[in-house]
Amino acid sequence: MIAEVKRASPSRGPIAPDLDAGAHAAAYRDGGAAAVSVLTEPSRFAGSLDDLAAVAALGVPALRKDFLVDVSQVWEARAAGAAAVLLIVAALDDPTLASLLDATADAGLDALVEVHDEEELRRAVDAGARIVGVNARDLRTFAIDHAAFARLRPSFPDGVLAVAESGISTPAAVRGARDDGADAVLVGEHLVRARDPRAAVAELVRAGRSSTVGPAIPPG
Known about the structure:
The chain is an alpha/beta fold. The protein has one domain: Aldolase class I (TIM Barrel), CATH 3.20.20.70. It is built from 10 helices and 10 strands. The longest helix has 14 residues, at 94-107.
């Protein structure tokens, strides 16, 4: 479970403008989250590197989620205490993606490399990505394709960790992602809006650990 801290998004507008990043992340940690994703982009997501530092100070692995396009941003993330950064294949050409992956290795960080389709998955794997997230949200229309993860998962090479992103807000959705082969799920808006974020995380974590209920959704 990667639980996300964000105050706003382009698709939803303000979500939790007064959110305390550190307090919310502490609730996620106490609920059983393995890591916390922190939006640091200021204009569309109302985030900051201060939020990242506040979360990292808790001792929970923190992911910098932003539009990273320059090596300097990787080192900014490390200076703020991040354990990992997000790299979005759709926003990067191949040389820049490779350069950023090299920088994360040099900085001692992990990289969650985000893809949306088969071609982006191929590019991520060719660049050497070891953790790949399938974002079910179309960045152009903001529509959710709930079948995206199941469709792409069979094309993951052995040894590459698979993360299901976007559109996950219920225990059934977590079980579905797990049954389709997800090693982790990233959940944002549902947890940010929850009255009790600790309990909300714990509910989803339990779902991910429970026995399979029904057949997995077949690829395609």
